[in-house]
Design brief:
The complex is a heterodimer of chains A (501) and B (128). Chain A is α/β, with parallel strands linked by helices. Chain A contains 21 helices and 13 strands. In chain A, the strands form four sheets. In chain A, strands 6-5-9-7-8 form a five-stranded mixed β-sheet. Chain B is of the alpha+beta class. Helices cover 43% and strands 19% of the residues of chain B. Chain B contains four helices and five strands. A five-stranded mixed β-sheet of chain B has the order 2-1-3-4-5, covered by helices on one side. In chain B, helix 3 crosses helix 4. Chain B is globular, with a radius of gyration of 16 Å. Chains A and B meet through helix 2, helix 6, helix 8 and strand 6 of A and helix 1, helix 2, strand 2 and strand 5 of B.
Amino acid sequence: MILASPLPRLEDVPFFAHQRLVVMRHRGRIDPERIDDYIALDGYEALPKALLEMTPEKIIGEVKTSLLRGRGGAGFPTGVKWELCRKAPGERKLLICNADEGDPGEFMDRSVLEADPHAVLEGMVIAGHAIGAGEGILYVRDEYPLALRRMQVAIDQAEAYGLLGSDILGSGHSFRIRVIRGGGAFVCGEETALIASVEGRAGRPSPRPPFPAQRGVWGFPTTINNVETLACIPAILLRGGAWYASMGTETSKGTKVFSLVGKVKNTGLVEVPMGTSLRRIVFDIGGGIPDGKRFKAVQSGGPSGGCIPEGLLDLPVDYEALTKAGAIMGSGGLIVMDETSCMVDVARYFLGFLMEESCGKCTPCREGILRMHEILTDFTEGRGTEAQLALLEELAPVVKDASLCALGGTASNPVLSTLRYFRDEYKAHILDRRCPAGVCRSLITYVIDEGRCTGCMVCRRACPAEAISGGKRKPHRIDPERCVKCGACRESCNFDAVRVA
Amino acid sequence: MTAPLTVEGLRQLKARLRAEGKAREEAIRARVTVHMGTCGIAAGAREVLEAVEACVREEAATDVWVTTSGCAGLCSREPMMTVERRGSPGAMYAGLDAKKAREVFASHALGGKIAEAHLLCIGSERTD
């Protein structure tokens, strides 16, 4: 008799077992369009506590104790940010929730808005009370229609219950939230650019100071917090700042949500305590690399982050450790790359994105990224020289240091980190005119291994350029003159007979 | 529009919702949650939800509570669905389509037998 294997339990599934949910504490458990579902759990429990039992100073103190740092990217301590705005002179103040998630491949904010909209609203009302703001702006990118709809439903429901509006819960504190749809510009991750966009101007940054806490939207003191930051707030007030600070590393407390994507078996949203190693995230939670391929790098922090190689996989993720490794935390994007990714091409790709998203206001960013992209394109197309490599290495730190905002300030990261860890690949492109990963079309040729080829005709039919010759059960051949290097033959071959040389 | 809640009103509402939720859990046979974030919907969660709702109608299973939630986290295995029966831990199912959702519904939600073929795992996530 064969014994049935025991059914897998959640704690046996590494994807779930290693996660610790604070931001995503209600995931899968509530209907986001029903405020009652949220209330029936621990929803709107922190709110009366904050509004009636705590002074704004006490709330700020609690958030300072939690050592929560802004989850949008820069990692500035949230309590300190609130205190600056609280202390800024002025009657009218504003709170902005930045839900303009702009990094490609990241979707943690979208998921929180869609799954637990009231957690964000509750966090906003509390933050408003702490900084002394009676109005909040929810800035959501227009590419998130479902999140926009669910947030609007949530706002309407909270208003109907009197949890938003005037004199909330009889506390005397009033707070209203207005939704503004963003046009999806990456540069609006920069606070001053976001403010410009809220005011109806083009999303371009301006020099700081003045900081938004002194002069923000329409000149009023403004605090900008990210979705994930605000969603933590109710939990921190309910359970205490010390509880939150008990998780994490010395400088980075609490948990962080990562969007785990790319060449990894399990893609999705991962919330782990700060200090969890990249190896645990990629190999245990993510399940490792599919199709038996080898891990090459993980890009942390979005397009302006950096590539971290295999040798640093035991790095505990926190703000300082990632920065030291040449990457950034950013808002928590992790893109896994395997041996089929060319690191020069990856750097070129990210620089291309940043080139298009640069607002063009300052020269180092506008021209610098353009030149770096040109050089990288030359490398990938087989025109690279050692002089260009030297120029690239000179240019990258200049763009980093001289740009007006964080877009240019971090734009060199993909270049610098790949140069630091994958210099061999650059050298192969420049000196040997070779792409070791077999990605850069100008540097590769496709050949058929006649020993492995069974003559099945599959690649011949797949080839859009009719570059493959050879009859049934006879070894096929690729005509390099006609080949467009699309890789269709390699993908279609069932016998691993198409090689990249 | 209802009158704005007071602190006491909010406390009472919470108590009432919890009591109602508990009473409902006692009264129903099963609760089925279809996870409908953008990722789930893109992978076909709407078809899954429609299939489940059709099952409820066909079987006149008024004691099965069908609800939705946001993303369950494991985007690459969407569409996902959770089935909870009174007195036993919930089960998460992954990689569903309309046909598989019907199988899960018939086997687990109605029959109380876990549909092993589509099971991801049993249990719910830690939130302590």
